[in-house]
Amino acid sequence: MIYFNTTNNNFFINIISLHKFIVSILLISAVFGYVIGIGKLYLFHLFLVIYWFFILISYIHIKASVVKSIKILLLFLLFMIISLFWSLNLKNGLTYLFYFLCGYTIVFAIINYAVDLDKQKFIFKILAIFFLLNFFIGLLETTGYFRLPMSPYYNTFSTYPSGFNGNLNNFGFVFIIIFPF
């Protein structure tokens, strides 16, 4: 359980555990995606706001080495923001900018948290558990006897897996990307 204790070094230890908890929940909710959400608002979006809130109030500190390592991403993000001025459809431009910000936040959260090997192993374990769960759900879906109720293929007799991804192509892409690990 996470608690705040302001005596001596316990406060610092609890802030680190809070950082670990927030990053864990952010990554887990990112893997679940649309499965835990209402319409187009996913639980991941809520934890995205919470993550940035803790950065803004300085509970999660941004390391200088992280800023150096993501300079190219920040430059690309700046270009995307500027490109909104000549975008033919501002709504689509803002939507895709939001998608990139979601992805950049995941990359940023991992880089900012996993500064040593133990933290990298922790991130790997968390992601491995939930991606394996995703693939297990996909395997069950190939039998035709099980499909997640929020899947767009729920009322069909399709045996193609979609897992937590909601789309057959996305499930396949995630599987191919994760398979070597």
Describe what this molecule looks like in 3D:
Helix content is 65%, strand content 2%. The chain is built from 7 helices and 2 strands; from the N terminus they run αββαααααα. It has helices at residues 10-32, 43-56, 64-69, 71-83, 90-113, 117-142, 168-178; strands spanning 37-38, 41-42. α1 packs antiparallel against α2 (43-56) and α4 packs antiparallel against α5 (90-113). The chain is globular, with a radius of gyration of 19 Å. 17% of the residues are buried. The model has no long low-confidence stretch (mean pLDDT 83).
List keywords for this structure.
two-stranded antiparallel ribbon, 181 residues, mainly alpha
N-to-C CA distance: 31 Å
- Could you name the ranges where pLDDT drops below 50 across 5 or more consecutive residues? none
Widest sheet: strand ordering: 1-2
Rg, Cα atoms, Å: 19 Å
Largest sheet, if any? 2 strands, antiparallel
Order of helices and strands: HEEHHHHHH
- Secondary structure: number of strands: 2
* Residues in helix, %: 55-70%
Shape: globular
Number of alpha- plus pi-helical segments: 7
Average pLDDT over all residues: 83
Q: What fraction strand?
A: under 5%
What structural category do the secondary elements indicate?
Answer: mainly alpha
Question: Can you describe this structure in just a few lines?
Answer:
The chain has helices at residues 10-32, 43-56, 64-69, 71-83, 90-113, 117-142, 168-178; strands at 37-38, 41-42.
